[in-house]
Design brief:
This protein is an alpha/beta fold and 309 residues long. It has two domains: 162 residues, 3-Layer(aba) Sandwich (Rossmann fold); 124 residues, Nitrogenase molybdenum iron protein domain (Rossmann fold, 3-Layer(aba) Sandwich). The chain is 38% helix and 19% strand. It has 13 helices and 14 strands. Strands 3, 4, 5, 6, 7 and 8 form a six-stranded parallel beta sheet that branches. α7 runs parallel beside α13.
């Protein structure tokens, strides 16, 4: 009787519904079946794949060791997978791995008008899904929001036939975010500057970069949220004029977060910035500051740094 009931449940399980179509920036992309030879570019995109349990569908990754490092968790997650390119891959490199799917973004492995784009990969039988945050480079887009990250996970779930897992992940992230931010004071948002890199001129996050969404979720306001760009270089003068109360340091690459903080504290031009005077910095790892599963951890860090909670 038990076996018969189990068999009935098995037969009633819905088949994976392919073909499926997802929105990827300004394109609709149709998949006749789930990819089986995927490549992801950059640590945050790789982690989205791992969060959905898609490691076994991957044949490699790109765009990590040339700029960033993999922490222990990520290293374990992609053990034995080859890094096909230390920085952005060439079309030839991708073709050589014979993938059927490339998960990347604009300025996350692809450049507008460059050698590697969805249009140049399509003749090779490689379908591309574009990171939602990066869509501003190819068309109009609303400013960054947590929904950008959720949309990518849900779309990947559809593409790979794991929608139930994606939906459960997103529901869990939303619930945790609500819990983390429940006591945030939104009446008096803190002025926040994102310092990625650069000494002569700082590289920072504008309206369309994920830190703007993270900062707002934590009860702050990005002082560069009127910058109609994603990640971009600005002058130091407006940073000083807008006087951030907190500076978010993005930690990656050869220049450490401590070195970036030392630069800010040691420059007399920044001596009157509230964040520098009061030694208020929050350090986010690159994988936390870019769209991906660690965005909720990032908001939790920001809430603690902003409000001492």
């Amino acid at each position: 009787m038990k076996f018969a009931f189990a068999a009935l449940l098995l037969s009633a399980a819905p088949a994976l519904a392919f073909p499926v179509t997802v929105q990827s920036c300004d394109r609709e992309v149709t998949f006749d079946e789930a990819p089986t030879r995927a490549i992801a570019n950059d640590v945050n995109l790789i982690e989205m794949m791992l969060a959905l349990g898609l490691r076994d569908t991957m044949v490699g990754y790109t765009g990590v060791s040339g700029w960033k490092t993999l922490d222990e968790g990520l290293r374990a997650g992609i053990a034995e997978l080859p890094e096909l390119s230390a920085k952005y891959p060439t079309r030839e490199v991708l073709a050589g791995a014979e993938p059927d799917f490339f998960f990347a973004g604009w300025n996350y492995g692809m450049k507008v008008g460059g050698e590697v784009t969805p249009e140049t990969l399509e003749p090779l039988g490689i379908k591309t899904y574009e990171l939602t945050e990066s869509c501003i480079f190819v068309g109009p887009k609303a400013k960054a929001s947590m929904d950008d990250m959720y949309a990518d996970l849900l779309n990947l779930g559809t593409i790979f036939g794991v929608s139930a897992k994606a939906e459960a992940l997103v529901a869990g992230y939303k619930a945790r975010l609500a819990e983390v931010t429940a006591s945030v004071d939104r009446a008096t948002p803190l002025r926040v500057f994102v310092y990625d890199s650069g000494e002569e001129t700082p590289f920072t996050a504008g309206a369309y970069a994920m830190p703007t969404a993270l900062i707002e979720a934590a009860g702050g306001v990005n002082i560069m949220s009127d910058l109609e760009k994603s990640w971009a270089t600005v002058a130091w003068e407006p940073v000083v004029e807008r006087n951030p109360e907190v500076i978010v340091i993005v930690n990656y690459g050869d220049v450490t977060a401590d070195q970036k903080i030392a630069f800010l504290k040691g420059n007399p031009a920044f001596a009157n910035i509230d964040a520098v005077r009061n030694d208020r910095y929050v350090v986010l790892d690159y994988v936390e500051a870019t769209p991906g599963p660690r965005n909720i951890n990032a908001v939790e860090k920001l809430v603690a740094g902003f409000w001492g909670k």
